[in-house]
Predict the structure.
Amino acid sequence: MADEHAFRAWGLGAGADWSESAQGTNGIGTCLAEGRELIVHRDQHFMATNIEMSCIDAPVYGPDGEIVAALDVSSARADQTEALNGLIAELVRQAARNIEADAFQDKFSDARVLVVSDSSDGVSLLATNADDIVIGATRAARRAFDLQSFGDLKPIPLGDLIGRDSASTGFARAQSAAITRALIRADHNVSLAARELGVSRATLYRRMKRFGIKG
C-alpha cells in the first residue's frame, strides 16, 4: 500500500500503542479511558506528532456491558473541518452500536432476542430463554431498565421488566388463542366453536367478551 509508510509514521499501523499513558489525549486512548464518544481535532491532541490528525471515536460495549474496544476513524487531511468531523462521528457511533447488537445476538444465538427500543444510547436488546426469563441485556437495555451495569446478568422474569406478569397472563393468552382458532374453524359460528371447545355457548360468549374477541 502506497501510504503504509506514512500511516506507520502517524502511529496508524498494527500494534501501535494509543493508550492515554503513552500518547496523552487522543481519540482511541481517551475514548477507552472515559468510555464515551469523542472527537480529538488536530491540535487538541497532546502529542505534537499527532496534531496533523483528526480522530473520531466511539466505545464498543460487549454483551456483558463491559467496554471491549474503541471504533476509530482517523484522518490526516489538512482540509478536514470540525463540521465534517461531526458528520463522521454520527456514522462511527451508529457503526459501534451495530457491532454491539451483532455481538449480542451472536452470543445469545440460542435465545429469543427482543428489540425493546432504539435510541441514541444504542439498541436495547433483551435475551430470554424458553421460560421468558431474561438472561442477557445490551448496555442500552441495562441502562433503560436500571439493571447491573456489567457482568453476567442475574436472571429476571421478562414480565418484571416490561410491566406485566407474563406467568399470570400466559394462560389467558392461550385461552384467547384457542377461542380465536375455534371460531375461525367454525367460520365464526359460535355454537359450533363452543362445541369444539367443550363449553356452553353462554360460557364462550362470556370469555369472548372478556378477551375482546368479536364473533
